[in-house]
Specification:
Layout (H helix, E strand, L loop, with lengths): L1 E13 L2 E6 L12 E6 L11 E5 L9 E6 L4 H8 L5 E8 L12 E6 L4 H13 L5 E7 L8 H10 L3 E7 L9 E2 L4 H7 L7 E6 L1 H13 L7 E5 L4
Parallel strand pairs: 7-8, 7-11, 8-9, 9-10, 11-12
Antiparallel strand pairs: 1-2, 1-6, 2-5, 3-4, 3-6
């Protein structure tokens, strides 16, 4: 079902990364981890990639907000989106997708996420925290530097509120002031935080290359293929 929705607010939340708040259409309900399709209406410029993109919802259903976050690239779509004024309208379709937290609370969840792939995971972890679910959740979140990492403060807050949630930010190019994990996520880093790698369900999202590399790393560590759930974020 298609809805025309208005932009309520936009803000920069990390390097070249913006958060867009939209009015939530009446009757539209979504699950944590789902996404919607956002179509520009009569954009001032266009290119061969078209005027429509899919974006995951940043907030949990219980937070009752409709928002998306994206890296701002040079594509016509992203440039028009960046320059939209408050009150501008887009056509919205959705929700779609089944990238969501498994129901069995006794089975741990491990999220291995790169960059803007964090958006559906923020929704899932927020909802589980609000619900006080018993899921044991660990997030390994990779970015170049803290300035490149959206929602760092949110996850630090969730870790305080939720005793079942462990947050592991990982920076690949951090300077000497960074006290957390550095370098790339590998099997040794995984085993530092996960005592038995065969038990959890793993969620991978981010750039396709990273998702592929992390899937290969998990398989190499002995994780079964059907315990790995993926969502790729192409860099459009």
């Amino acid at each position: 079902m298609s809805n025309t929705i208005k932009l309520l607010k936009k803000e920069t939340i990390a390097t070249d990364t913006m958060l867009f708040h939209w009015e939530k259409p009446e009757g539209v309900e979504f699950k944590a981890g789902q996404f919607g399709e956002f179509n520009l209406i009569d954009p001032s410029e266009s290119d061969e990639k078209g005027d429509s993109r899919d974006f995951s919802f940043v907030f949990a259903p219980a937070e009752n907000k409709l928002a998306i976050a994206t890296r701002i690239r040079d594509s016509a779509y992203k440039q028009v989106l960046k320059d939209l004024s408050e009150g501008a309208e887009v056509e919205f379709n959705g929700p779609y997708g089944d990238f969501s937290l498994h129901k069995t609370e006794s089975t741990p969840a491990v999220f291995i996420i790169g960059g803007i792939g964090i958006t559906p995971v923020r929704s899932m972890i927020a909802q589980a925290t609000i619900d006080k679910s018993a899921h044991d959740m660990t997030l390994l979140y990779s970015n170049k530097t803290p300035d490149d990492a959206p929602f760092l403060n949110d996850f630090e807050a969730f870790a305080v509120k939720n005793d079942n949630f462990t947050f592991v930010p990982v920076m690949t190019r951090a300077d000497s002031n960074w006290s957390g994990e550095s370098g790339h996520i590998d099997a040794d880093m995984l085993k530092k935080y996960i005592s038995d790698v065969n038990v959890p369900i793993y969620y991978l999202s981010g750039p396709p290359g990273m998702v592929w590399d992390m899937r290969e790393m998990l398989l190499g560590a002995g994780v079964k293929d059907n315990n790995i759930i993926t969502e790729e974020f192409p860099g459009y």
